[in-house]
Amino acid sequence: HQRHYRLERVMSNLSDLLPSGGGQNIVEFTASGTIASGKPVILNANGTVTQVGESPVSENIGTPVEFDSTSSDFNGIAAAYDVNAGKHVIAFRDSDSSNRGTVVIGTPSGSSISFGTPVVFNSSNSSELDVAYADSLNKFLVHFKNHGDGNKGAVIVGTVSGTSATFGSLAYYADFAENDGRMVWSTDDNVFVVVWDDDNNDGESRVGSVSGTSITYGTEVAFHDPGGSNGVSEIGLGYVSNSKVVVAFRDKDDSNDGKACVGTISGTSISWGSAVDFSTGRVKHCEVCYDPVVERVLITYWDEDNSDYPMIIVGQVSGTSITFGTPVVINSAGTANATEMVYNTAAAKTVLYYTQNNNSSNTFSKLVTVSGTTPTLSTAINITSGDYRYFEAALAYNSTDKNVLLAYAGTASPYNGYGLIYTAAYTGTNLTSTNFIGLADAAISDTATGKINVKGSINSKQSSLTIGSDYYVQEDGTVTTSSTSPAQKIGQAVTATTINMMDLT
Predict the structure, then answer these.
(1) Considering the entire predicted model, what is its pTM?
(2) How far is CA 440 from CA 6, 38, 49, 231, 500, in A?
(3) What's the average pLDDT block by block, 10 residues per block, for the chain (505 residues)?
(4) Cis peptide before 486, with omega less than 30 degrees from 0?
(5) Separation between Cα atoms, residue 482 and residue 459, nearest integer Å
């Protein structure tokens, strides 16, 4: 009986089984910065450790870098970031080489970027360019209008290789001439959507799937049939979420009003809700962007009935429909070009770029914050000046470096191509998906040596844990049960103060 009692006592006292530090897998490191007891730490490149935390990152505007020095003008440019390759892909129409469709690969490094040699993807005149990164395939897609073959719309699959790219064969989505074609990739469905104005003056769409470098299309579906002889134009297209896309366009058979439709993807099919007015005035240059934090759609356009002022309006998708708030003027001095948009995840804001009419040597950015269906715009930020002002432009968000590429053609002859890296101010973290190393066994002063509980160890310097729950380190260094990326798993709570770090997967 006495032996049974002693065994029960041992088994019921977890602190006896798992003493402080777990008795193993404790490694001594030198601290870079002060580290508090029990706090998560990262491993630095020099072998020191630093407490996980956040710090402000300042706004920065990089220097324009030339990627094409022979083009006499651009008529179409698009860009995307290839996460797998860590490269930017810029597609442009090289008018100094018979307007051929061309791609150049950019390698970002902090606030700068360098470029490889441009590669031709279509030897004929190419326009209406779009680029999308196909995340599940580690490839990119280029949409273009092939003027050398009946003005038909096509998509081609590309693969980044170092500072160059290789391509499959182009795949036409329309048998006849198309206009205003646009393309987006659906991360939920691993397919892409193309929309265009066809030769019958309807707004049409198709879903494309990719296998290797080959493309197959689903059935053609009209997103809007205006019933007249003029059709649609000025098309913008954006991916939303949950297999939804939004198309914005000018309805030429209804006083050139601005309208939008919600499309729902199912396999290689798509269905569309009814068109909804976002402007009862004449519109041009529609662009669509999605804010995933507030789950709202942003549409920019020119208001032809209001001195061509660039406007922005916010929409909310519900099922197959969309409702809008009140439009806001982006710049009361007008703009000479379409307003470009991209969502900046780090800053949790949408970045706008535009050229100001009364200051033709400069381009500006504004950051958009959305509340409900109301957009709030920051003060203008002067991005480029002089000959670097863009004629045609494209934006791409770099989710690795948390900044934005602006690819554009300068306004001074010969209108060469440039890339520029812009970083909006945000609060950054030193935590990545690979650098979390463990929990401090005790407080460590800056430059001092101390013990860190690493994988396979036990850390008993926590508080208020829920036994049996998995815990994760967050961007700000707190330890919670939230697993939302970029949080990294620490282990499982075995007491209110102890985390078992045996399983970090």
Answers:
(1) 0.87
(2) 33, 5, 10, 65, 14
(3) 41 38 76 98 97 96 88 73 97 85 96 96 94 97 95 97 98 91 97 90 93 97 83 94 97 93 98 96 95 97 88 97 97 78 96 76 88 96 68 89 90 74 95 94 97 95 97 96 92 96 67
(4) yes
(5) 19
